[in-house]
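Data card: per-record layout.
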Amino acid sequence: MQVAKEILEKIDEIDILLGNNEKKDILEYIEKYNNEKQEDITDVMKQKEYVEFGSTTFTEKTRAVIKIQDGCDRFCSYCIIPYARGRVRSRRIEEIVKEITDISRLGIKEVVLTGIHIASYGKDMKENVTLIDLLEEINKINGVERIRLGSLEPKLITEEFVYRLKKLDKICEHFHLSLQSGNTETLKRMNRRYTAEEFYEKTKLLRDNFENINLTADVIVGFPGEDDEEFDITYEFLEKIKFYKIHVFKYSVREGTKAAEFPNQVIPEVKEERSKKVIELSEKIQNEYNKLYIGKQVKVLFEEKDGEYYKGHTENYVCVKVKSNKENLENLILDVNIVDIENAVLIRRVRKKPKCNRNVIFLKQKLNNEY
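The structure for this 371-residue chain is written out next.
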């Protein structure tokens, strides 16, 4: 709505036109609708404070997604989000802590912190607070056993941040890093503000401090100007880092962004070929990681029934299934013994009671989205 107002106003079939800030009151707008076109769109570029949307709505019984900030001021050349969501606006710590405390009383064991750019949390506040300050407060909340972070900007990963982070016993050792490209020249055109070499050092810092860490990342293929040589450098970089999972996006034009006007746009066939190649690499590396778990024991938070299996995740976000025809394993954290691997999937036993063996499976996930 924020970036396509003029176009949407011309569509007769649209009865109510609302901006990002107004969506929290959508029911109220519907109730007041009187067969006349309504429009209410706040200019988010002028907004300086976070708008509370109330408690998080969630459907899972074991995990809740908590929004901690909105907006972004990075202005990556391919991204329309800063224009659509406005400047960085951080939610106050006391509001976040209150919501998570309320959630913990419902039995939720894991919270996932998300936002448009959570690495910028606190930079807009008069108080001198950052993301690590928020995490330290959340870590004190009784009941919640896991804190998982959404996508992280590499610049956030400093020695001080990691030093304080590893003291928090509830932090999940799974970090999703927004890489986008393993080639420094491509990163420059993307306006990503770090080099491939700097990114690599961040991954080393994390791996040196977290024993059971799994790293995942976003990568865009086919960005304007990415020739075969630049892509090959990115591919070799991905082989070097060995992410547990790579989320691959084929670049697509976003009107209103700088990249939309860049020369040397990559044809769809090349994007598709590169996407498939990176996905195959991701699956190969994930398979190799999974094999390393055979014979080991991990803790799994079981989340839901999936056929004759219960599905859940380890702290470092390995997806696991265990057969259970009688017991309800939902929202239980259990020790799981890894037994075997099948089709890039791991089969194991859960140790809960003596003489109680169950088959367990690591799921292989395929992601081939378009950015």
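Known properties of this structure: DSSP finds ten helices and 17 strands in the chain. The chain has three domains: 1-42, 43-291, 294-370.

See the next section for split statistics.
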